[in-house]
């Protein structure tokens, strides 16, 4: 659903030029959903999030970005930028998301990668 929403919000060239940015946001939204399921502890989703290198990096975002796409109180934008640029992007590019097919828009900084999440959770608790 995040892919569909994002495609609707952006121009085709902007969307294509930031495929990896969108993947990161979509994977994070999926993690937020599954990790809050009552059956998550001990589930196949938790196992996947703890063992898959891509999923581990996405899970780590929750230490910096909350479930509404905002920074947590005890971190700053540098922490998020560092995590994305030095850990998440390389891990994705090394694990099935090649840079030529999944370009990362380096002009989108920090929280700009979670704008759809922020928009979709505006009136959520």
Structural overview:
The chain is globular. The mean pLDDT is 87. The chain is an all-alpha fold and 125 residues long. Helix 3 packs across helix 5 (53-61), helix 4 (44-51) crosses helix 5 (53-61) and helix 5 (53-61) runs antiparallel to helix 6 (77-94). It has helices at residues 2-9, 12-16, 19-35, 44-51, 53-61, 77-94, 115-120. The chain has one domain.
Query: In percent terms, what proportion of residues is strand?
Result: under 5%
What is the radius of gyration computed over CA atoms, rounded to a whole number of angstroms?
14 Å
The structure class reads mainly alpha
Distance between the first and last residues' Cα: 20 Å
Count of DSSP strands: 0
Q: So what's the oligomer here?
A: single chain
What does the average pLDDT come to?
Answer: 87
- The residue fraction in helices comes out at 55-70%
Total discrete domains: 1
Spell the H/E element sequence.
HHHHHHH
- Which runs of at least 5 residues are low in confidence (pLDDT < 50)? none
How would you characterize the largest beta sheet? none
Q: Tell me, what's the shape?
A: globular
Q: How many separate helices?
A: 7
């Amino acid at each position: 659903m995040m892919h569909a929403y994002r495609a609707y919000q952006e121009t085709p060239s902007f969307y294509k030029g930031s495929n990896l940015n969108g993947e990161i946001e979509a994977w994070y939204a999926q993690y937020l959903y599954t990790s809050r399921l009552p059956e998550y502890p001990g589930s196949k989703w938790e196992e996947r999030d703890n063992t898959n290198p891509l999923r581990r990096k996405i899970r780590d975002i929750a230490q910096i970005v909350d479930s509404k796409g905002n920074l947590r109180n005890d971190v700053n934008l540098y922490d998020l930028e560092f995590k994305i640029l030095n850990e998440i992007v390389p891990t994705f590019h090394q694990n099935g998301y090649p840079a030529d097919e999944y370009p990362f828009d380096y002009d989108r900084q920090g929280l700009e990668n979670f704008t759809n999440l922020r928009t979709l959770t505006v009136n959520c608790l």
